[in-house]
Specification:
Elements (H helix, E strand, L loop, with lengths): L1 E6 L28 H9 L8 E6 L3 H7 L8 E4 L4 H14 L6 E6 L3 E2 L2 H15 L4 E6 L10 E4 L8 E7 L4 H10 L2 E11 H11 L1 H10 L9 H11 L7 H6 L5 E6 L3 E2 L6 H5 L8 E3 L2 E5 L5 E4 L5 E5 L4 E5 L4 E5 L6 H7 L1
Parallel strand pairs: 1-2, 1-4, 2-3, 6-10, 12-14, 13-15, 14-16
Antiparallel strand pairs: 4-9, 5-11, 6-9, 7-8, 7-9, 8-10, 16-17
Helix pairs in contact: 3-6, 6-7
Amino acid sequence: MLTFLIMAGGSGERFWPLSTKEKPKQLLKIFSDKSLIRLAYERILPLVDKNQIFIATNEIQVPALKEELNELDDSRIIIEPAFRDTAAAIAYGSTMISKYYENPTVVVLASDHLIADGDEFRKVIKLAEAEANNGSIVTLGIKPTYPETGYGYIEVSDSTLNKATKSLGFKEKPKYEIAKEYFESKKYLWNSGMFIFKYETIMNALKKYSPNHFETIESIKPLFNKNEGVKTAELVKDKFMNFEKKSIDFAVMEHASNIMVIPSEFGWNDVGNFLAFEELFKSDENKNVIKNVKCISVDSNNNIIVSNGNYQRVSLLGVTNMIVAVTKDDILICEKNKNQDIKKIIKLL
């Protein structure tokens, strides 16, 4: 049975003040007239019934999530009692799914990525499903279009599109010189963070390569109740905290021998920070990207000016290479090259 686990947590830091803990970027309608999680949900509906789609999130985001996806049954919302990174989230979420479907094929997706070509994406998912059903753990590698330092990479011997190939290793986010080498070699793909596997396959991998995650999920299983929602999260919280805080890459993907990669091109963008607006939207004659806000610009260029609604006019004079983000409660003014440090402001708040 093909099922989907959409990861929808997040701290709301990278797009503050547009995003918050209660409403992180996947719940915002700033990239299109639909939220990112709505787009992710609708993108996979042609493949499965809505009951085969599960959303993993945290308790604070449940109200906004239910409002955004009101057709989703409460039993399909998996509430994690704490953030313990992706290995724990995948172990917990896929085990919850296995309570409804015996040894399901699970597709793990992010809720906050953009994909331009839905038909091509669904085609690749079906290819990945077939590989997973043969006992592989499958990931989708994106053919790079430039030397990106913000993504991890996967080394492969064959980067032929839509042809499953063995992983030769996962690489951490590189410096520019290394990223340039990766790009020019044509033997490296961007790590999309999408994974496809049979439930028993991932459990066997955790048992072998990350016993902590396997043993912790085994201790949690007896506490599961399919329809308890928040109560289940409260019930398992103490044992959930026993999970090592580790990504699925470190826990499994860098060690397992049955990792297959499908080189893919379907217009993927992880919308990682404010600079994504420059990739997604056209700039004006002064190379300013202006989204959802009225703006007057004089002698100002290469800026990103964005709002989650037309709350006020923004006027720029002699401003260059800045991010200006406006909500009814807050205004962020930030040099582009400092956008990774927005969390420093959040700590002060």
